[in-house]
Amino acid sequence: MPCSNSIKRPINVFRGMHKVTGEAVAVKVFKNGVVPARELEVIQKTNHVNIVKLLAHEVDESSPYNLQKVIIMELCDGGSLLKILEHPKNAFGLEEDEFLTVVRDITLGMKYLRENGIIHRDLKPGNIMRYIADDRSSIYKITDFGAARELKDEEEYTSIYGTHEYVDPDVYEQALFANTAMPKKKFTPSTDLWSIGATLYHVATGVLPFRPVDGGRNNPKVMHLMTTQKESGVISAYQIEGKNGPVIFEKHLPKNCLLSPDLKKLICPLLAGLMEVDPKKKLSYESFFLNVDEILNRTQVNIFNINKSQLLRLFINPNETKTFEDLKGVVQSHTLIYPENQILFFKDTTLDGILGNGTLDVCTKLPKTAKTNPVILCDRANTEVYWKSDDALFKKQLFPNMVTLANDAKIAAHNCKVAYLIKRQIEDACQKVNLIYTSVQTINHVVMTQLTSASKENNLIRKVVQSINNQFEMMEGFNQICNVFAKLVPGDLESSSSIHESVKKLEGIYSSEHNDFQKLSEMLLQLKPSIDSLLGSRVQNKFLMNSWEAFTTRVKGLEEFARFGKIADTLVYNIGQAYREINVYLTSLSRRSGASQSGDKFLHLIERNKMAQEMDKLEKHHVFCSDNFSALNSVFSEWYKLAIAAYVQPEILTKDLLSLQERMFESENFLNAAVRNFKSQLEKVSESLASVPVVVVGSSIQNSQCHKDEESTRVRVARLQELARVQKEVQTNFKINKELCNQLHGLLIGSCSGKSS
Which residues cross the membrane (predicted)? Predict the structure, then answer.
């Protein structure tokens, strides 16, 4: 910052090598030969994965600057975050996963510094380095502690350090607008919070948060107005129509930002709190750390909304989303699809089949999703599929006939940004094509599984019904036997009346339960034709997949769509090469003159023409891709109507089978009660049977009360012999009935298990 107290440290950073291990290191050289004592003191006290590590400090005796002092630090091969953001592909900010990595690492690094009473005072993308780990993942590290100092929360400082675009407004005002007559302002460690907010905004969007015409350094008054006069909640501002033009304030991240809508909603309040002018409303360090933890600890769920061909990423709060119904409520808030109409698939099954409706702490049980492997969402009430092509937020610029090196470089930079934007749109569309093909496979598999399961369920229920039928046949047999028994019991027998009463009750139990069973059988008979028909057309004839294969003969195949992305890669690479060459020639021409300059101008024109030609190709390719994507979407829309119908039909059957299953359980309970009652009555009959004297064939029967003739005696003997046979049959049927009861219970348990699986 250009003021009397600004830090001026002529330094250079070189790539070096460890003298013993040969490990690559960064060597920070101070040309005046003096290492700032405070910087060395501060960095020696740090030891954290998100702080660039000090390895050594020594004197370079071979230096032409006379015993030059150097600091040796760990090397971050990924370069500075600023260099990363300056690459055209990051013109609209980092991709979401990388952005979250930056947020995590900066927060952890700053949390460590605060815990150790250190303020940085010059946090910005240029002072954040990317270290590439062995697994190629990124680790971002805070560096350059030349302005840092130890300062506790309650302490203050007055010296001015920082960088215009990222510094706290109070520090900025003191540096640029204060005069000697004004007392010096005192600042607290919270000044780093504004710098964090400005840095994160830059990382999220690819641009600075506050942008006067010609930049803050050339237009400091407007810069000061933007940062001090903004309302609470404002996170950015830009100026239009010249240096004295109006200022537009924004409370939201720009549309072209690469973050998902759900993450934007979480990040905007965080940025607003960090870049708050009112001290009472500004986030504290503790609140900042807690807010970031809350965002990073949310459960991320990737969802492909088929009806809108839209890939969503939801950041779900596990403390507020406990059940599957809660999850459906969250989905509704983002898609406007009512929970009862949501069909959620994951891989080869339904999400509710994985989680279950009664699941608690659903976020801990959700399967891991990704952009390439999301939850697939369908709206059962909507069979339309929409494919909305991405809006062209930026257009390419044409090179003017007159060659102006600086202007050409600006146009080349703009076109390179547009090229990466088009490439990203083509890649996103190709990814959606893959998800459409995945959705076809998934829906087909689930429908076939449902129908196959329904068929198995139906067969199992038929066995259960057959078992129940056997039970009733047994009861009917008991009735017939007992009626025969009752007729054989002599009327003058003491227990005759109780036997007749028990037999009558048996017949009543059988009649009342048999009517309900008949209705159950009728329900089963009604379902069978529907199940058999669907099983034949949908499963055995592979209706859905055959339909898809027929539809897709009219459009490009999956392999051809994959080629679209590769062609875009090649064209954008060529455009990037031309952009780099134009910048090389710009630097070269500024240093040369005469004939050599003329040759470079010729080469510059060639690169200009090359970029223009490749941009034309890319635009035409983009239109070609969009037309093919739309054609595929139309085909998929036709197939999707068939798919939803195919899914809903077995779903209805499944509900009917479930209802039938519930009726079976009710029938089993009633049947068990009836059988127990039946058995009780039979036991009474059996006891009566036991009281009848056993008959031995060939013996004579003496009756003390009356004397009958020989024929009457033979009839009596025959009846008693028949009673003995009936007694034996009743005991045998009791055993068979017990086996039937066990079989029925086992089938019902099997039916229940098959349904739950």
Answer: none
Contact criterion met (CB below 8 Å) for 50 and 113: no
Locate 583 and state its tokens. 């910048």
From first CA to last CA, the distance across the chain in angstroms is 67
Q: Which CATH number fits domain 77-292: 1.10.510.10, 3.90.226.10, 1.25.40.10, 3.90.110.10?
A: 1.10.510.10
- CATH of segment(s) 310-379: 3.10.20.90
Residues recorded for the chain: 757
Decide if 138 contacts 90 (C-beta within 8 A): no
- Provide the pLDDT for residue 127: 96
Q: DSSP for 67-102?
A: SEEEEEEE--TT-BHHHHHHSGGGTT---HHHHHHH
Contact 306, 439 (CB under 8 A): yes
CA angle 235, 236, 238 (to 5 degrees): 165
pLDDT tens readout for residues 484-525: 666 666 665 556 666 677 667 666 666 666 666 676 666 666
Give the global pTM: 0.81
The kind and range of the H/E element at 698 are: none
Residue 690, classified by CB atoms within 10 Å of its CB into exposed (0-12), middle (13-18) or buried (19+), is exposed
Domain 391-696+706-757, architecture per CATH: Up-down Bundle (1.20)
Beta strands 54-60 and 68-74, pairing class: antiparallel
Q: Give the span between the Cα atoms of 255 and 239, in whole angstroms.
A: 18
Which of helix, strand or coil describes residue 192? helix
Q: Where are the domains of the chain?
A: 77-292, 310-379, 391-696+706-757
The region that residue 683 occupies, defined by phi over 0 for left and psi between -120 and 50 for alpha, beta otherwise, is alpha
CA 275, distance to chain mean position in Å, is 30
pLDDT the model gives residue 687: 64
* pLDDT, tens digit (0-9, with 9 covering 90-100), for 374-424: 999 999 999 899 877 766 667 899 999 888 888 999 999 999 999 999 999
For the beta sheet containing 54-60, the strands, ordered from the edge strand earlier in sequence to the opposite edge, are 11-17, 24-30, 68-74, 54-60
Long-range contact list for 732-740, CB < 8 A, 24+ apart?
Answer: 733/474, 733/477, 733/478, 733/481, 734/679, 734/682, 736/474, 737/471, 737/474, 737/675, 740/467, 740/470, 740/471, 740/474
Contact 366/355 with Cβ under 8 angstroms? Answer: yes
Question: Cβ distance 141 to 51 under 8 Å?
Answer: yes
pLDDT category at 754 given cuts 50, 70, 90 is very low
Contact assessment for residue 616 and residue 419, using Cβ atoms and an 8 Å cutoff: no
Question: What angle, 0 to 180 degrees and rounded to 10, lies between the N-to-C axes of helices 405-488 and 710-756?
Answer: 170
> Could you give the residue numbers annotated as active site?
122
Is residue 607 within 8 A of residue 582, CB to CB? The reply is: yes
DSSP-assigned letters across all residues of 375-422: EEEEETT------PPPP--S---PPPSS--HHHHHHHHHHHHHHHHHH
| CA quadruple 530, 752, 379, 340: dihedral sign | positive
The DSSP element (H or E) to which 365 belongs, if any, is helix 362-365
- Token pair recorded at residue 542: 């592979």
Q: What gap in Å lies between CA 692 and CA 726, rounded to an integer?
A: 12
> What values do phi and psi take at 276, rounded to 5?
-100, 130
> Chain centroid to CA 334: how far?
13
Q: Which residues contact 735 (CB under 8 A, 6 or more apart)?
A: none
Asked if domains 77-292 and 310-379 share a fold, the reply is: no
Half-sphere exposure of 111 (CA within 13 A, CB side): 16
The CA–CA distances, whole Å, from 423 to 258, 316, 389, 402 equal 14, 30, 14, 29
Q: How far is the C-alpha of 476 from the C-alpha of 514, rounded, in Å?
A: 10
Cα–Cα–Cα angle for 485, 486, 492, rounded to 5 degrees: 120
